[in-house]
Amino acid sequence: MPHATQHADVAADVAIAELDTALRGGPFHVALRAAIAARGLPLQRVQHHLSRYGVKVGVTSLSYWQQGARRPQRPESLRAVRALEEILQLPDESLIRLLAESEDSTHGDRSSARSYRSFVAASGVLEHLLAELEYPVDNGLDSLGHHERVRIGARGELLGRESHHIVRAHRDGVDRFVAVHHGDQGCAPERMTVRALENCRTGRVRRHHDTGVLVAELLFDTRLRSGDTFLFRYAVEDGTAGASREYLREFGMAGGQYALEVCFDARTLPVRCHRFTQHSAAAPRSGRQGLALSPQHRSVHLVEPRVRAGLVGIGWDWE
Predict the structure, then answer these.
(1) Where are the alpha helices (DSSP H) in the chain?
(2) What percent of the chain has pLDDT over 70?
(3) What is the bridge-based pairing of β-strands 310-317 and 174-182?
(4) 182 and 99, same structural domain?
(5) Residue 178 maps to which CATH number?
(6) Residue 254, domain member (yes or no)
(7) Alpha-carbon Rg of the chain, whole angstroms?
(8) Residue 120 within any structural domain of the chain
(9) Residue 173 domain-assigned (yes or no)
(10) Angle of the 59-67 helix axis to the 28-39 helix axis, nearest 10
(11) For residue 208, pLDDT beyond 90
């Protein structure tokens, strides 16, 4: 029996060492397989633990994930990945980060910083911040129009953005909106500021340093009735990270018009710009189309007459 115990201890040490290596270098499916092996859990038990988190994932899907045959993509699947980090006693964001990196290697034009934060938002960090503000999933507002102006500085950094919203309430009592800002890699949310510019004032602000996410409550000082329209404008000052390469906006459902304008500093202009779309944060990019930089205004823009669920954005190359 001592020999059996010794062999078991050695096997456990090897499994943990393999897990540490996989978590550092990936890829995602190898790290997931190593984590499950290190904890000694059959897939049925993993599925059972996930169900206790309110997440439904089939054993077949779990098997495909750890084999690398498929990757989690849907929001429910990404929530499962976040839950797996807790169930398998892994560091926060370890699997999510590897999953985002695997997407970056597959779609070379994606920004690892931006796609990683998209994964994080889908996997629970954003949900947690919104829950702190007691902000419901249905905010009671339909978007009729949204004009967003993004400023890029002389170092290529995301200086900030200004948003002008036109909304209509679809229930009584709506009196606020929560804005979400995703900084670029290396940003410092604690140094960002939010300014209420028109028909609103700033309420509570929450930040998540590791993922560069900031959420800010904008109070209307009036309670809208169902059918009422409302206009408000706010800005987020950033400028805390390095050179930016893209800006995107995610829409949970179809809505009204969206216009995105990216303005560059005259001292640092990109060599090319393009627009793109994505069906979800984990889906491949499509709809890539070159955008001509206006020499006079040093800006590019896109207009979606009626947005669809998914993501739309503008990317650019510095060289």
Answers:
(1) 2-25, 28-39, 43-52, 59-67, 75-87, 94-106, 112-123, 125-132
(2) 86
(3) unpaired
(4) no
(5) 2.60.40
(6) yes
(7) 22
(8) no
(9) yes
(10) 120
(11) no
Query: Does residue 91 sit in the same domain as residue 179?
Result: no
pLDDT, tens only, 52-110:
888 888 888 898 888 887 888 776 788 888 889 999 998 877 888 788 766 555 444 44
Q: Which domain holds residue 41?
A: 2-106
Instruction: Classify residue 291: in a domain, yes or no.
Output: yes
Are 39 and 89 in contact, with CB atoms under 8 Å apart? yes
Report the distance separating Cα 31 and Cα 13, nearest Å.
Answer: 16
Residues paired with 215 in a beta bridge: 180, 206
Domain count, the chain: 2
Residue with tokens 């999510």, as numbered in its chain: 96
Q: Which residues pair with 314 in a beta bridge?
A: 247, 275
- The predicted pLDDT at position 161 comes to 98
| CA dist list (Å): 119 to 15, 64, 149, 172 | 27, 19, 24, 33
Closest CA to 316 of 288, 280, 282, 283: 288
Q: Say which DSSP state 1 is in.
A: -
Query: Any idea what the CATH number is for the domain that residue 74 is in?
Result: 1.10.260
Q: What tokens does 159 get? A: 């200086």
Q: Are 270 and 316 in contact (CB under 8 A)?
A: yes
Task: Indicate left, alpha or beta for 89 from its phi (over 0: left) and psi (-120 to 50: alpha).
Answer: left
* CA distance linking residue 153 with residue 161, whole number of Å: 11
Joined tokens for residue 191: 């140094």
Q: Are 141 and 174 in contact (CB under 8 A)?
A: yes
Cα 48–chain centre separation: 27
